[in-house]
Amino acid sequence: MVYVRMHPHWTEARGCWDVAGSLWPVFGIGIGISGNTLGLQVTRYLLPLTFVAFVVTLLVWRLQRVEWNRACEALKRATELNQQFVRERDQAQEEVFRRLYEDRELNKEKFQFQAQLAEYEKYSTLAQLALGAAHGINNPLLGILSHLELELKSASDPDQRWEVEQCIAGTKRIAATLRGLVNYARPGPLVLSNLNLHRLVTDTLSFLEGQPALRGKRAENEVPVDLPHILVDSNQLSQVLMNLLINAAEATPDGGRITVSANKLAFADSIEIRVSDTGCGIPLDILPHVFEPFFTTKPGKGTGLGLSISATYVRRNKGEIRIDSVLNHGTTVTITLPIRQEESHKGKEESEIVV
Q1: Which of 50, 117, 183, 275 has the greatest number of CB atoms lying within 10 Å of its CB?
Q2: Average pLDDT in the 193-200 region?
Q3: Residue 9: helix, strand or coil by DSSP?
């Protein structure tokens, strides 16, 4: 049989344990009650703080939103002001460019008007000079020419005859210059007629066929036979064609080709006449001066009035004339004439004349 010796304080410890065991439920409840009370207290203080923090956060967000909206509005206004400034700047630049363009156009027109005024003054002076010369020189010149022709008939010495012939040629050249001046300064009234251009060119080439300037050159008429008749002054147009053909012949070497062509313009009630040659051409520095009175590149041979008179006749018939030339390749003179003249010339129109 085994005996176990107990600790002297076991009984007291056992009693304490029992007491503790009997107090545990109460202690647990107390702890639970104490935990709930702490939770309530924490909740009581935490909820207001949380609410306050939420309200503060909301207010801060609202203020930031307001500031953001203000910044956006300010940026938008600044953008609109900048766009308005850009538009005003562009408009100002356009206005400046427009005024500069207008000033340039006005200056160009001013220079053109001044040039035209100077040209008109020159023409007026030339007209007065031509008319005065015609009356002051022509009659004595005819007397000199008659005397020279009588001298030529009575001269038997070849040298003397040659001298008289040279004097007669110079006198006739002076007379031709005077006639050109008078025709240029005071051309006669227009006598309009319905003109067959193909027939006019044919007759003009036939008339010039025996001229020394056309010898050794080919002159061709390429004007269509069925081209519409044009209402012009036939005498003036014939003189224009003669001047152009003689100039082309003098500039064309032997074996060269001179062509007269024409056609009706597609989108205008006009006829375009072209006189072309395969001659030496006109230098670019001379081309702008070819229509000036007394301008000539043939000293001693021409008066410098042929193209001036031709341009005057073309303008009086409501037409235009221009020259295109390539040096050493040839020249083309283009004349544009209306098929019908304006109403102001109706009274001077004759019956149909086909030349």
Answers
A1: 275
A2: 90
A3: coil
Measured distance CA(186)–CA(321) in Å, rounded: 20
According to the model, what pLDDT value does residue 41 have? Answer: 64
Query: How many residues are present in the chain?
Result: 355
Residue type, 125: T
**pTM exceeds cut of 0.90:** no
**Residue 298 and residue 236 in contact, taking contact as beta carbons nearer than 8 Å:** no
* Exposed / middle / buried, residue 88 (Cβ in 10 Å: 0-12, 13-18, 19+): exposed
Question: What amino acid is encoded at 88 in this protein?
Answer: E
Lookup: tokens for 171: 């006198």
In the predicted model, what is the mean pLDDT of residues 227-253?
Answer: 88
Structure tokens at 350: 């004759």
Task: Tell me the pLDDT tens digit for each residue of 296-331.
Answer: 777 656 667 778 888 888 988 889 999 999 888 899
How many Cα neighbours within 13 Å face the side chain of 210? 2
From the list 147, 141, 245, 263, the residue with the least C-alpha distance to 197 is 263
Q: Which residues pair with 277 in a beta bridge?
A: 258, 331
User: Which residue reads 């000036």 in tokens?
Assistant: 292
Query: Beta strand pairing status for 257-264 and 330-338?
Result: unpaired
The encoded tokens of residue 67 equal 């500031």
Q: Could you give the domains of the chain? A: 191-348 (3.30.565.10)
Q: Which helix (H) or strand (E) holds 338?
A: strand 330-338
What pLDDT, on the 0 to 100 scale, is given for residue 273? 94
DSSP string covering 10-76, please? HHHHHHHHHHHHHHHHHHHHHHHHHHHHHHHHHHHHHHHHHHHHHHHHHHHHHHHHHHHHHHHHHHH
Asked if the model's pLDDT at residue 2 lies above 60, the reply is: no
Average pLDDT, the chain: 78
Q: Is the pLDDT of residue 274 over 80?
A: yes
CA distance 177 to 300: 12
Question: Cα(30)–Cα(7) distance, rounded to whole angstroms?
Answer: 34
